[in-house]
Amino acid sequence: MRVSSFMKRLGVKLSLNDPRWGSGKDNKPQANEGKKPGEGGPPDMEQLWRDFNQRLNNLFGQKRPNGNNNNGNDGGDGGPRPGPDLSGGMRATAGAVAVVVALIWLASGSFIVQEGQTGVVYTFGKVSHTTGSGFNWRWPYPFQSDETVKVSQMRVVEIGYRGNIKNKQTRESLMLTDDENIIDIQFAVQFKLKDPVAWLMNNRDEEDTVRQVAETSIREIVGKNKMDFVLYEGRDKVAFETQQLMQQILDRYASGVLISTVTLQAVQPPEQVQSAFDDAVKAGQDRERQKNEGQAYANDVIPKARGTASRLLQESEAYRSMVVENATGNASRFKQVLVEYQKAPGVTRDRMYLDTMQQIFASASKVMVDAKTGSNLLYLPLDKLIAQAAATDAQAAAARAAAQAAANAPPAAASLPNDLVPSVEVNRLRDPRSREALRDRESR
């Protein structure tokens, strides 16, 4: 439809059923237009093509030179046959089309950069400048081109595995340690871009460059350490040193990469010797567990033993002090009694005898009656006897409790209560069966 309308605007009619075929502009037949010479039959296609070319020439401002043509299609005056004057409208249409095409071409230079991205503009293939986020414009192709780079995105490169640590890449993961052992390491590197221009222009395959640098760095670090250090206590140190070495190499390459973290996903011996290493690890764990249990038992028993020893030492010191003080007191009292005895032996003997008998009878539960008096009235101190019986029962219960407590307590040096030692010493001195009591009786 567009071709036919364009042909109509040019004044070219190709329909054979047109009743105005061969007529001019005013529906008047033209003598030789579109017909073979000497014939009134169908139009000549070659002549139509010549007319079409002539009108195109008129449209673009080209005039046909004066003179007769070879086909004898000149007018009666011998000059060229004038065609329709369509040059003015067609030129306006062509100008409008050219303006629209130019606007579309200029609009193709606009582009939008999202947040977190940076636009890089090339001029004839060379980086000219960078743009920030938002709407931007550049000269269209072929003068300039653009490319957007995500600078805030955290990128991840996996070494020794792909996607999952079970999907191992043995060519990347197997490494040699300082003690000539083979170790299997899978780790991931997280990085961002600090210079998008360097990232695009200085790297042929960006992620592959980072992967090769990571593999080179960790092989160097692992090759300087023992296998046990890398397997157990040195993982954090290996990751930290690998990150530093990677950053140094990438800065030297001017790759525009900033390493964020290096994470060791799996560090283990090769699969062929994994079971033997597992047994060794279990044995080491059992050894540590038993050491911890022994240390805990020692921490529980040793303080108790030290406390018991300290208590026994203090009790022994107290008993020694008590015995020494009692002996000193008894010696002093004996010296005082000796002085009094030397002054009045008989009186002193009687007083000592009476005191001793009073102490004996005070603790006795028997009542002695003098039958020679012949008195029918007998006085028995029942209240004192009942109180004495109750005190005796209380002392017996206390003694049984003390004995039971002593049986349950750990063995210690035998010691007497402080309140019983003086009485024992006094009773020993005042025992009526002692030598001094017998001497007093004999002297009487």
TrEMBL record:
Supply the Pfam families for this chain.
Answer: Band_7, HflK_N
Quote the subcellular location field of this record.
Membrane
Which biological processes are named by the entry's GO terms? proteolysis
Q: Does the keyword Iron-sulfur apply?
A: no
Disordered: annotated span? 14-89, 425-444
Query: What molecular function does GO assign, one term?
Result: peptidase activity
What is the recorded membrane topology of this protein?
A: Single-pass membrane protein
Q: Name one GO cellular component term.
A: membrane
Keyword Cell membrane in annotation: no
List keywords of the entry alphabetically: Hydrolase, Membrane, Protease, Transmembrane, Transmembrane helix
**Domain Band stretches:** 108-281
Main localization of the protein described in the UniProt heading: membrane
> Residue ranges under compositional bias (Basic and acidic residues)?
23-38, 427-444
**InterPro entries attached to this UniProt entry:** Band7/mec-2_domain, Band_7, Band_7/SPFH_dom_sf, HflK, Membrane_HflK_N
Which domain of life, per UniProt? Bacteria
Instruction: Tell me how this protein assembles.
Output: HflC and HflK may interact to form a multimeric complex.
Of which family is this protein a member?
Belongs to the band 7/mec-2 family. HflK subfamily.
Q: What does this protein do?
A: HflC and HflK could encode or regulate a protease.
Identification of the protein by name: Protein HflK
In its UniProt entry, the species of origin is given as: Duganella callida
Name of the gene encoding the protein in the UniProt record? hflK
